[in-house]
Structures are given as structure tokens and as C-alpha cells.
């Protein structure tokens, strides 16, 4: 039991969810490692949603709102950390949800589908009938109604190869990734450099208010390269400030 007063309460709760998801057969072995990498970057960012994240989150909501067939792709980590938030966002934006695993096993697919059923929603991907070109078989599996025909795909915590393969299919790719240096972050059209649950909470708020005019305006001003650059400068600034504090002579 983690006390609420613990300074790292939120971070520890997320860890617990990932461990729980691993025990329940939802999270892959590599999902534990991926989570740790995310935590390290969140530490560098300062564990809050910075302006570069908020701008990307607004643009992501705008793009999904204007899309014809938006799809949210979910994996083990996303399910363990934020299935409830994915469902809320999908409902607000009329988006489909599809399970699409990097370390695909039928057992994990079933457990993830069952997890979403608890929220009363059906998700795609259990019986894939299409392939993403350019990927080897099991990683390429997807649904014709979902990812295959989507115009906009939100792929949080995605692998770089698949993000690139989706781009090659002509899709507009949105990712949530705490590592601005990852191939996925560099490949996506909109990169949200923020922690998954914080990002989804913000996006749910924006999705409640978005309309056609504001969505168009937001997208006309959005530049992903600028956002990525801001995230790196932010980390750089924080490290410099910390280093400078340590050099201040002690009384
Ligand atoms: O469930 P599966 O089989 O589809 O596998 C999922 C993982 C995440 C294991 C798989 O896609 C993978 O190996 O991903 P990568 O290549 O490790 O990329 C995950 C990225 O997400 C890394 O850049 C992490 O920094 C980032 N990340 C991890 N946790 C979070 C995060 N970004 C935002 N919020 C997080 N909570």
C-alpha cells in the first residue's frame, strides 16, 4: 500500500499498475523495461505536462476530431495504465479502439480485449483480416475496419518500425512518447512528449470543448519539429539549472 503522502506517489502507482498488468498477462516482459525508460525521461522532463506537450495534445485532439476514421491503437502498457481513459477519449472523438501488439500472443490479445469489455466497449484486432505492408507477419496484423483503413492513428508507446510503416501507408500518425529522441517520436506527425495518463487526461478535457473552427485553427499553426525541439531544449535547460545549483557555494 503506497501512502498518498509519498513524494513519488503517482509514479509508484503507475509502477504498480504495470506490475499488476504483467501478472495478469496484459503487459509483455519488455513492457516493464519500456516503462522504466519512460520513467527516466519523465524524471528529466519534471513529471508535468509542459507547454510543448499541451500544444501537441490540443493538435492531436483537433486532428482526431476532424478525421473520418480515427483509431486509437492499444498495447499491453496502454491497457494496464489507462484503459479507462482510452475509452473516454474514444467516445468523445468517435474513435475506434484496436489492440495491436508488438510482442503478439493470442493469450495477451484475449486478456486485453477482456479488459476493455469491462468498460462495455468492443475493440478491434482480435480477429485481424489485414496486414500493414513492410512488417513481418505477426507485427503487421491489423483490422480492415480499424488501423488498415484509418486516416488518423493514435499510437501511444509505439515501436519505431511500425510508426514508419503506418506513415508509409499514408496515415497521419500521432504518438505519445516521453522520449523525444525515439524513432517513433521523430517519425510521427504529432508527437506528444508527455506521460501517457497525463496526456490522455488533458486530451479528454480538450475533446470536451473542441469544435470545427477551433480544430482547424489549432492545426494551421501546429509545427511538430518546433514541438520536438522545445522538448529537448526544456530537458537541456533543466539539466543546466540543476548543474548550476550544485555549483553554488554552500554556506
Ligand atoms: O504490448 P506490446 O507487445 O505491444 O509491447 C509494448 C511495448 C511498449 C513493450 C513495445 O511497443 C516497445 O518495446 O516499445 P518501445 O520501443 O520500448 O517504446 C516505448 C516508448 O514509450 C519508449 O520511448 C518509452 O520512453 C515510452 N514510454 C514508456 N512508458 C511511457 C512512455 N511514454 C509515455 N508515457 C508512458 N507511461
How would you explain this protein's 3D organization?
This protein is α/β, with parallel strands linked by helices. It has a single domain (51-232), classed as 3-Layer(aba) Sandwich (Rossmann fold), CATH 3.40.50. Helix content is 57%, strand content 10%. Helix 1 (9-23) packs antiparallel against helix 2 (29-45) and helix 3 crosses helix 10 (212-221). It starts with 8 loop residues before the first helix and ends with a helix. It binds ligand PTJ. Ligand PTJ binds next to helix 2 and helix 4.
- Overall radius of gyration: 18 Å
Helix percent band: 55-70%
First-residue to last-residue Cα separation: 40 Å
Structural class based on helices, strands and sheet pairing: alpha/beta
SSE order, as H and E? HHHEHEHEHEEHEHEHHH
Keywords:
alpha/beta; 57% helix; 7 strands; five-stranded parallel beta sheet; two-stranded antiparallel sheet; 251 residues; binds ligand PTJ
Short description:
This protein is 57% helix and 10% strand.
Write the layout of secondary structure elements.
Elements: H1 9-23, H2 29-45, H3 51-66, E1 70-74, H4 76-93, E2 96-99, H5 106-117, E3 130-131, H6 137-140, E4 141-142, E5 152-154, H7 160-168, E6 172-176, H8 183-187, E7 190-192, H9 196-209, H10 212-221, H11 224-247
Parallel strand pairs: 1-2, 1-5, 5-6, 6-7
Antiparallel strand pairs: 3-4
Amino acid at each position: 500500500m503506497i501512502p498518498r503522502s509519498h513524494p513519488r506517489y503517482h509514479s509508484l502507482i503507475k509502477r504498480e499498475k504495470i506490475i499488476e498488468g504483467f501478472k495478469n498477462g496484459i503487459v509483455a516482459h519488455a513492457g516493464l523495461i519500456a516503462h522504466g525508460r519512460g520513467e527516466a525521461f519523465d524524471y528529466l522532463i519534471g513529471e508535468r505536462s509542459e507547454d510543448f506537450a499541451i500544444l501537441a495534445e490540443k493538435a492531436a485532439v483537433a486532428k482526431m476530431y476532424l478525421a473520418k476514421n480515427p483509431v486509437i491503437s492499444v498495447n499491453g502498457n496502454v491497457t494496464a495504465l489507462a484503459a479507462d481513459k482510452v475509452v473516454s477519449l474514444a467516445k468523445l472523438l468517435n474513435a475506434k479502439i484496436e489492440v495491436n501488439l508488438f510482442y503478439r500472443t493470442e493469450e495477451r490479445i484475449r486478456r486485453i480485449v477482456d479488459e476493455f469489455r469491462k468498460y462495455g466497449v468492443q475493440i478491434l484486432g482480435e480477429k485481424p483480416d489485414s496486414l500493414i505492408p513492410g512488417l513481418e507477419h505477426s507485427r503487421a496484423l491489423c483490422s480492415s475496419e480499424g488501423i488498415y483503413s484509418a486516416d488518423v492513428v493514435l499510437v501511444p508507446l509505439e515501436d519505431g518500425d511500425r510508426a514508419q510503416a503506418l506513415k508509409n501507408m499514408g496515415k497521419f500518425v500521432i504518438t505519445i512518447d516521453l522520449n523525444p529522441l525515439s524513432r517513433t517520436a521523430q517519425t510521427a506527425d504529432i508527437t506528444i512528449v508527455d506521460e501517457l495518463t497525463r496526456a490522455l487526461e488533458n486530451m479528454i478535457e480538450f475533446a470536451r470543448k473542441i469544435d470545427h473552427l477551433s480544430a482547424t485553427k489549432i492545426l494551421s499553426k501546429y509545427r511538430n519539429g518546433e514541438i520536438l525541439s522545445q522538448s529537448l531544449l526544456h530537458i537541456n535547460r533543466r539539466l543546466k539549472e540543476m548543474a548550476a545549483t550544485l555549483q553554488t557555494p554552500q554556506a
